[in-house]
Design goal:
By secondary structure, this protein is α+β, with helices and mostly antiparallel strands. It is 46% helix and 26% strand. It folds into two domains: 60 residues; 95 residues, OB fold (Dihydrolipoamide Acetyltransferase, E2P) (Beta Barrel).
Length: 167
């Protein structure tokens, strides 16, 4: 195999690798954008409770016996003539946080109250109470990870080939 082909294959492989890594790293941004299609649906809060959790589960970090809290929310909604239940606050927020913050959330969602949940249009079993906000950072990450980095690597590969050809 010639040197030029080798450099081109390496460059293409790196472009593909970093493009896929970028797509994985930007997965949250992609999910947020796709979640905008989820349809607002009336729901009824079935239960809300504040649960004390400790150690790694509470904070995501191993902090020994330090306690944290999780908000457990269950709700019911109707979709396509069927009754469904959900228990997710949002796609990315597992409901962990400080006691006061979660108590405030729980106060506005007592059992029996009406709310709006967001339901996946193709899979009614997937729902959340809080739809993630898409920010400018999400658009920037998508452009960077899916366009600029792989494109830059491809340009670098082509320029490297041209430079080696001249030598």
């Amino acid at each position: 195999m010639g040197h030029r082909r080798f450099v081109l294959l390496i460059g293409a492989g790196l472009t593909l690798f970093f493009g896929l890594c970028g797509a994985m790293l930007c997965g949250a941004s992609i999910e947020k954008l796709l979640q905008r299609r989820w349809e607002p649906t009336p729901c009824v809060i079935a239960s809300t409770s504040l649960v004390s959790v400790s150690g790694r589960l509470a904070t995501g970090k191993d902090q020994g016996s330090r306690a944290g809290y999780r908000l457990d929310v269950a709700y019911r909604y109707e979709r396509e003539g069927r009754n469904w239940t959900g228990d997710r606050w949002s796609l990315f927020d597992a409901g962990f946080g400080g006691k006061e913050e979660l108590q405030e959330k729980a106060k506005v969602m007592p059992a029996g109250s009406r709310a709006t949940c967001f339901v996946h249009p193709d899979d009614p079993s997937r729902s959340v109470l809080h739809r993630e906000r898409v920010t400018e950072l999400d658009y920037f990450l998508l452009a960077l990870c899916l366009g600029v980095l792989p494109g830059g690597l491809l340009v670098w590969t082509v320029l490297s080939l041209r430079r080696r050809k001249r030598e």
